[in-house]
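Reopening this one. Same input as before:
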Amino acid sequence: MARKRTVEDVEAFMRQFKLLIAGFVALFAIPLIIYAFYLNRRLDSFENSLQHSPPQELEGHERPRSDLYHLTANPIEGQVVYVPAYSHIYHGEGKPCLLTITLSVRNTSMHDEIVVKSVRYFDTKGRQVKSYLDKPVRLPALGTTEVIVDRDDASGGSGANFLVEWYARTPVTEPIIETVMIDTDSQQGISFARRGSVISEVVPKSPDDADNATTTPNLEPATSTIDNESSLSTH
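Same output, byte for byte:
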């Protein structure tokens, strides 16, 4: 005949059961706590490594070199630059996303101006859509000029491009010519940039050709507005 369990036996069993559960919890919890502490230390160390490091100045006894002078890097007198542009791109199941295009021409010369001779806009099929300059315009040293194609102007298409022709009176550093495409109308904005590629370079004419030249193009400052849809401005 089985012995009847007393209250003391039940309590003893429950105590043993609780100790067993506590042992299992400790077996898993303690390594997790140690690992979490380790990860926290690693994260703190990583964040400290990303803190701003101020420039390190020369010591008092150190002097900057004074025997150096600057030479123009890869001097050039003019170029024709091809710049990719996108009046829209596609997403989802071929749905177009319209973009605002900004063409930026930046003179990188610290001392000399350049002359932007022409800015022509072409569509996906290579047909000229628009010429933005009636006359060449001056761009001062370290100056920037821009052309803006409105978001609603999709005439260029997804394969649009600019041809920018420029020249200088003396050899200068290459300007930075690029397009920036942006759209902020949707909940998730989009923006990206494309740098231009040189497709031809300008070389000086021979003395005989120079003697035959009879006219010099008139120059205008790069500050005029082209029209209501697109503009050219200097910053």
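So the earlier flakiness isn't reproducible anymore. For the record, Confidence is low (pLDDT under 50) at residues 223-231.
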